[in-house]
Amino acid sequence: MSRLLTTLLLYQSRFYVGKYISLEAKIAKNKDLYYEALGQSQDGWHEAKEDVVPFIKYLLGTVLAAYKEFEDRFAIIGVKRPAIEMVRKATENKIGKFSKQDIRELCPSLSISSIENSLRTLVKEGDLMRGGSGKATYYVRLK
To answer: What is the distance between the alpha carbons of residues 4 and 30, in angstroms, rounded to a whole number?
Structure first.
């Protein structure tokens, strides 16, 4: 409930990034840090000695990361490019393993078949390595 209220307060303060990037997903991805910051901020509450700074820093960092992700996504789709170039650009910022779904989130204007064809081409060209199979398929950047 508190995360929904946080999103609402951000909207009311004209921080609209939550419409395009899921703040809830960002928080869930790093929930250990979320609860750690929340715990640090609550310490001393009963004695009126709480320190809200750790939670504010965490929240601002999350909002900043969301805006950075939005900027990265817009850079990929901002200029009309062929599908292969959009997918290549999307994979350039990936570190470690990533999935087709990760690319789909970065290239929402592309169909799933265009993404699959582009990934297949990048694997053939030696830019990516494909691992796993089925839903567990992942890719790793080689160049």
So the answer is: 16
> Could you tell me what percent of the chain has a pLDDT over 90?
39
Q: Which CATH number fits domain 81-141: 1.10.10.10, 3.10.20.90, 2.60.120.470, 3.30.450.20?
A: 1.10.10.10
User: What residues have CB less than 8 Å from 128, skipping those under 6 apart?
Assistant: 91, 119, 122, 139, 140, 141, 142
pTM, rounded to two decimals: 0.58
94-102: Cβ within 8 A, 24+ apart? 94/139, 94/141, 95/141, 96/140, 97/131, 97/138, 97/139, 97/140, 98/138, 98/139, 98/140, 99/137, 99/138, 99/139, 100/137, 100/139
